[in-house]
TrEMBL record:
It holds the Pfam family Flavin_Reduct. It comes from Gluconobacter cerinus. This is Flavin reductase. One of its GO terms (molecular function) is riboflavin reductase (NADPH) activity. Transmembrane segments: none annotated. Keywords: Oxidoreductase. InterPro entries: Flavin_Rdtase-like_dom, NADH-dep_flavin_reductase, Split_barrel_FMN-bd. One of its GO terms (biological process) is pyrimidine nucleobase catabolic process. Gene3D superfamilies: Electron Transport, Fmn-binding Protein, Chain A (2.30.110.10). It comes from the Bacteria. The lineage of its organism: Bacteria, Pseudomonadati, Pseudomonadota, Alphaproteobacteria, Acetobacterales.
Amino acid sequence: MPHDTTTLFSQTTFEAPTVSQDRFREAMSLLGAPVVLVTTDGPGGRQGLTVSAISSVSDTPPTVLVCLNRSNRSHQAFLKNGVVGISVLSPVHHDLARVFASRSVEPDEKFAQGNWIIGETGSALLSDALVTLDCEIDAIHSAGTHDVLFCAIKSISASADADHGLAWFSRNFHHLPVKRA
């Protein structure tokens, strides 16, 4: 007989073991991830930052998730604008990734670097990115210090020229070869 998971979980109390922030961060540093710039523009202003907390969710409809720290100065702009531009970086963008990761660099200074195009949502997309995803925020889920933005993809553009992607692993950038069919 199949279990009714709703009943099963509502009657069970789970206690998570206590894990320190340092131990968690060290473990997550060993979880490789793509390096991407996420941008937004609209009534909440133009903002952008470097993230590695991004993942595919579904291909029907095409959806990705992006995790944003609620204490980040750009957080409210993403929520108010309701749009996200995602630029997946290649090794030539190493320095740009560092600029967008900096808390001391103002948005205008960030966007003065790189070549940008404006997507159909109004978000800035890096013209020579490995891949760009132009998205609308479809749903938001809060977890701990972050909001998880579920982003419906409105358009995709991929570079035919890039031969490597940029990844973040063990607190360093790494180059990953692109295999083409």
